[in-house]
Amino acid sequence: MAGEKGTKLGGPRSVATWNDGSDYRYITVTKVNPAVGATVSGVDLSQPMSPEVFEEVHRALMENVVIFFRDQHMSVEQHIAFGRLFGDLDVHPAAANATGHEEILVIAADENSARANGEAWHSDVSCEAEPPMGSILYIMQCPPAGGDTLFSSMYAAYEALSENMKAYLEGLVAVHDGEHVYRGLYNNVADKPVYPRSKHPVVRTHPVTGKKCLFVNRAFTTHIVGLPRDESDAILNFLYNHMEHPNFQVRFQWEENSVAFWDNRCAQHRAVWDYWPHRRYGHRVTVKGDAPR
Ligand code: SIN
Q: Has residue 7 got a pLDDT over 80?
């Protein structure tokens, strides 16, 4: 079993559609890893974008699951405007309104923090009925070392499964629950909060690329509907361990004024909080998505 798995993970099925970036005319797209992640340069995110440049940035995201930009300088309004090019913006259910703009989720940890955002592998707010299409994180202050973010391609993870496992997962639906994640964090609800809870297919088809990808995650998914609990736990744990294989991952080392834009429909991410007591600070805007199918 280990040998078979090792062969698959190292083989062509773990590699996303290869594009060497040479067919971009307006921006430069440089792959970081074969399966996931590319650095985009030649664009200033604070400025209005022509339809041609927008099309290429969007295509770079579709082809690479997560894209990275360096040396960007955006005001809160410019960050929101960049996000709105891709759709309406989500207001995070547990967001403190720290900037005066409800679309901005502050991502911050320092010596007084008891927790940091996103420390478990997850797809943002997958407990919502229509989870976000993408998230755009702009980090303005970095610790002296550490504070990286890991991203994993759920296309690559799905493609590396055996045909038997793919057939088993087809048609299964899982529950994604926000309560255990957000309990005590809703500061904008006067009465008893209602936490988001939704059912989504275990394997979804990306609405733009048409490719299949896994859509369960450690943070929000509690169980697969209609399976005995021990079978559901075993399958989910297998998938979670599988998704974390390094062949499907990229590890982004932040510098101040970097931006990461990930496609929540086909990526999971995990923030590494290894820098206490130092400070890391940034803003995230989150683009609304649709119901997974
Ligand atoms: C998150 O959006 O989950 C946080 C990611 C990060 O802080 O790197």
A: no
Please check the confidence at residue 131 and state whether its pLDDT lies above 80: yes
Closest-CA residue, ligand 1 atom 2, reads 118
Using CB distances shorter than 6 Å, the residues near ligand 1 are: 107, 117-118, 135, 137, 149, 269, 271, 284
Per-residue pLDDT, 3: 31
CB 144 within 8 Å of CB 278: yes
Lowest-pLDDT range, 81-85, 88-92, 208-212? 88-92
Checking if the pLDDT of 4 tops 70, the result is: no
Residue of 106, 110, 117 best suited for mutating to test ligand 1, as the one with most atoms within 8 Å of CB = 117
| Residues present in the chain in total | 293
Which residues are CB-neighbours of 100 under 8 A, at least 6 positions away? none
Cis peptide before 277 (omega within 30 of 0): yes
Ligand 1 atom at minimal distance to the Cα of residue 284: 2
Domain architecture of the chain: domains with CATH: 88-287 (3.60.130.10)
Atom of ligand 1 nearest to the CA of 122: 3
Q: Residue whose CA is closest, atom 6 of ligand 1?
A: 271
Q: Which residues are catalytic?
A: 122, 124, 269, 284
8 A C-beta contact, residue 249 and residue 152: yes
Other C-beta atoms closer than 10 Å to the C-beta of 88 total 11
**Can you tell me which atom of ligand 1 is nearest the CA of 105?**
2
How buried is 211 (Cβ within 10 angstroms: 0-12 exposed, 13-18 middle, 19+ buried)? middle
127 neighbors 248 (Cβ within 8 angstroms): no
Residue 140: strand, helix, or coil: strand
